[in-house]
Write the structure tokens for this entry.
Amino acid sequence: VQLQASGGGLVQPGGSLTLSCLASGRNFNNYVMGWFRQAPGKEREFVAGNDWSGLVTRYSDSVKDRFTISRDNAKNTVYLRMITLRPEDTAVYYCAAARSKGYPTRGLNEYAYWGQGTQVTVSS
């Protein structure tokens, strides 16, 4: 599967953005999908994930209650809705896929497929 992330940009603190990740290939609903981010000088970290159905979700503590992951299996797309953005949310955001019908995992090594990343900058 190939992944293409989009939707990043410059936003003021307190603002919102929605990222999209389009997956090519078949059987999108066989994959756990995740969003990760990497800020300059920092390691890539888990942000959010959902299972094949979209009904089971998982978030990092830093984004819980502000970010929402969702997916549309008919469109082969996963979304990350981000609200109340903070300067510390500034990073390159990556979508990733893991071939699994199980619980969304936080581990980078569990995801075999990665998109190219989209920059999110939160600044006034």
Q: What stands out?
A: The chain has a mean pLDDT of 96. DSSP finds no helices and eleven strands in the chain.
